[in-house]
């Protein structure tokens, strides 16, 4: 594939029209006001039937899991999982809205991705059927806002090593303590996946990592106001404080303490979705910056000619176009691989994120430069995209951590 | 209930239009659904929904077997389409178009109601729906802003300068729908994916039993002799407010005799 199909173009145009009508005119309130992004996102989902489609997918998955569980209980051979013969290009129905939203409001994608992506995926990956049914459907449709909390003030890149958040057994229940920071959707979350270590009095390095699902308003759970930050203003980020939050085993994901590899694997299961998602976000930011820059280079006249006539400006446009082509190719490759039922390796997914995040930041900063003083002014759009782009190099694993993952994966083969 | 919607596929108004040698609009590129027809499509979908069953069928006449605009309406929820595409139709006038569309409507079984826009965004003759009604010998109601169907009767609020007339007609009937009276839905992703496999009945003038020499440029009985650009919009008058600007506004409105 080297371009979107006719149907995919129709999807793109329809989403673009929605964004032009519903988001662009309200960008000020979303970026600088007190308007959380969730209602607009819900409207987007309902408008295009993304909520109904997600509910259908969930139901099919659960029906299959239940059939497997029933057969196993009766001592029969469980039904075969349908062979992975690809998604028929369905990933484009997620990728295209991400790209289009990121042209205007990347923060919305962050808020959406963490809720329906990370949070629901954490429960879907390791939860029991009952837990999936209890929390996942409403996360997939964004009726409920989800947060996924691993980062702490003293533990970021080294997420497990220096994690202090703890669970202690108390009869049949657990008492949860700790504080989490930089948590996307933290201030508004209805459902929180809280990742912590089981404190059995053993040394921290040996403690199992467990995940619990919490609901807004539980005794001992405090959700901070949004933190002020450089960009992604339409994605609320906050802190969570837990003091003796009492939970039953029904909130322990998987309802078991027997977690594979001490629970340190679970959080990495979603790397492919998350890292390819960042590439799609980068493509949206890059495409918008490039389009705006080309138009400005044509229109803006200095020294008696359009600035696009100056070679130093041409070099910027050329580099932007190279970045757009490369990132688009990575995104198309991901869509093709999903259609073929193939997964990215850790090295590929990490390389994809590393390259795209750097490209988006570079392109957006160069767009600011190309626009001169106007580039520094909000009205001209590129300053917001430049601030938003930077975080792609930090969250979901910093650039430096992506590099270590690429090398680790290559060297262990 | 089965509703037929006449839809036109036109060159994208966002692109600069170009004219052929004979002064007709160039229609060689990709065509899109005329926005003024999206209201008829939406109204038809709502009526069928309300009736609890039936189909929306599109009828269109377009060059080069063009279906892009039809796909948009099929993605919104229309079930199928009849497309008349024939080189013999180049240069067709309003009455030819009406004859062809009327014949195409004849291919749709059990059409209870025929909707159209009051006028297209590229031609603006504003006569085709009434001509279709004439050719088919059906009652015609124009400028509908609200349509309801019950017991074989269509009730229409027909927009007027002062308000609206309440009209009624037995079915089948042809109703032209005013732009902007309903909010056309976005196509859902599922609808977009399904649109590709919905049936489009592609027919020629001969298939409709129409004599090719009676329609198109040959039968139009008209010729476009000259096209002149619309006059440039006059620049407005800018009045600096020196504290007395309101008097100038009053003078201006007084000049328009609106005060
Ligand atoms: C807007 C935003 C939203 C976020 N959302 C969430 C969320 O929803 N949930 C959540 O749990 N977390 C979230 N985070 C946290 C994010 O995942 C972390 O900030 C990130 O993993 C980096 O951790 P840190 O901030 O502690 O930086 P540190 O780990 O302290 O890193 C500081 C610097 O040291 C470098 N470094 C660290 N280790 C190494 C190494 N081994 N080799 C070389 N260099 C190294 C880093 O790359 C970085 O440059 C979010 C962060 C932001 C900014």
List keywords for this structure.
heterodimer, A: 413 residues, alpha+beta, Butyryl-Coa Dehydrogenase, subunit A, domain 1, Butyryl-CoA Dehydrogenase, subunit A, domain 2, Butyryl-CoA Dehydrogenase, subunit A, domain 3, 3 domains, 7-stranded mixed beta sheet, two-stranded antiparallel sheet, 12 helices, globular, B: 259 residues, alpha/beta, Rossmann fold, 9-stranded mixed beta sheet, two-stranded antiparallel ribbon, 7 helices, 11 strands, binds flavin-adenine dinucleotide
Helix content of chain A: 40-55%
The chain pair forming the largest interface, with residue counts per chain, is: A-B, 14 and 14 residues
- Average pLDDT rating of chain A: 95
Number of helical segments with 4 or more residues of chain A: 12
Q: Which structural class should the secondary elements of chain A be placed in?
A: alpha+beta
Number of strands of chain A: 9
CATH domain class of the largest domain in chain A: Mainly Alpha
From the helix content, strand content and strand pairing of chain B, which structural class follows?
alpha/beta
- CATH class designation of chain B: Alpha Beta
Biggest sheet character of chain A: 7 strands, mixed
Helix-residue proportion of chain B: 25-40%
Helical element count of chain B?
Answer: 7
